Each structure stands twice: as structure tokens, then as C-alpha cells.
């Protein structure tokens, strides 16, 4: 297998990459925030309904506010990442073989050996490549031909790396 494709100097591309990588890391804040807000809302309603006194109401209200802020943290970080990364738009390329993934961005280049890849997750526009438990890079499917994307998908599935959405 040998797949090669170019990455144009699109100002929106680095933001999409940053959003894809940060969504993986920040997803738990949304879950924690939802639980915190729900527990706070239920506790606030019960404390008001049963007359448990005004001592606990501020605690439950703080839990609701904290939960809402936690749920808003992930979209805020993704928005900042998109805005800040737009100035990093440079031409690049991917060169993917049976042995490794080579990436070039501007004058920088680097690679990841397939032997070091722990898993690959399928997202909306990218395959997110994990080395260990950390997302290391992305492979943009939208910039690949359909045949190359299918070849790579089959290769990753045969190696047991590809995890479904």
C-alpha cells in the first residue's frame, strides 16, 4: 500500500484538526457537566419543595451553574482552537505506507510507525490516530480519493486498529 495526498494551505483546515483532536479530550467535561447540572437541579427543586431550608439551596444552585459551565467548556475550547490555529495554514502532505504515516506541514515533517499505533477512531471527517492512549495525529479522509480511503480503512481494520464511531 502506498497512499499519497496533499493538504492545501486552507485557513480552516488547522481549525478542523484542532477541533477534532480537542473533542476527544474534552468530551468528558460535557458528561460531567450534565450530571452535575441534573443533580443540582433535582436537589434545588427538592430543597425548595420539601422546605429543607435555605442552607442547601446555594449549594445546589452552584452545582447547576458549575455543570452548565463545564458543558460550555468544550465548545469554548474548540472555538478558540479554530480561531487561533487559522494562522498556521501551510501546505502539507501525507505519505502513508504499510510501515508508517509520514506527514509534512510547511518545513516540518514527522512520522508514526504503524507498530506504535494503538488504535484509530473514526470521526466525521478524520481518522484520529492514537499512540498509546493519546491522540497523536489525524488522517483527513476528505482530502483522499475514495479508493485510497477505502484501501486505508481495510488496512487499518485488518490490523485491528480501526474502532467504529
What does this structure look like?
With 165 residues, this protein is α+β, with helices and mostly antiparallel strands. It folds into 2 domains: 2-7 and 92-163, Pleckstrin-homology domain (PH domain)/Phosphotyrosine-binding domain (PTB) (PH-domain like, Roll), CATH 2.30.29.30; 13-87. It is built from 3 helices and 8 strands. The protein has a 4-stranded antiparallel beta sheet, with no helix packed on it. It has a 4-stranded mixed beta sheet with strand order 7-6-5-8. Strand 5 and strand 6 (126-131) form a beta hairpin. Helix 1 (13-49) runs antiparallel to helix 2 (57-85). The radius of gyration is 21 Å and the shape is elongated. The two termini are 24 Å apart.
How do the strands and helices of this protein lay out in sequence?
Blueprint: E1 2-7, H1 13-49, H2 57-85, E2 92-97, E3 100-105, E4 108-113, E5 119-122, E6 126-131, E7 134-140, H3 146-158, E8 162-163
Helix pairs in contact: 1-2
Task: Record keyword descriptors for this entry.
alpha+beta; PH-domain like; 4-stranded antiparallel β-sheet
Describe the structure concisely:
The protein is of the alpha+beta class. The protein contains three helices and eight strands; from the N terminus they run βααββββββαβ.
* Fraction of helical residues: 40-55%
CATH fold node name of the largest domain: PH-domain like
Radius of gyration: 21 Å
Poorly predicted ranges: none
Mean pLDDT: 84
Number of strands: 8
What is the assembly state of the chains in this entry? Answer: single chain
Read across the widest sheet, the strand sequence of neighbours is 1-2-3-4
CATH class of the largest domain: Mainly Beta
The CATH H-level homologous superfamily of the largest domain: Pleckstrin-homology domain (PH domain)/Phosphotyrosine-binding domain (PTB)
Just name the CATH architecture of the largest domain.
Answer: Roll
| Category from helices, strands and their pairing | alpha+beta
In percent terms, what proportion of residues is strand? 25-35%
> If helices are DSSP runs of H or I spanning 4 or more residues, what is the number of helices?
3
Order of helices and strands: EHHEEEEEEHE
- Counted up, domains total 2
Shape: elongated
Largest sheet geometry? 4 strands, antiparallel
End-to-end distance:
24 Å
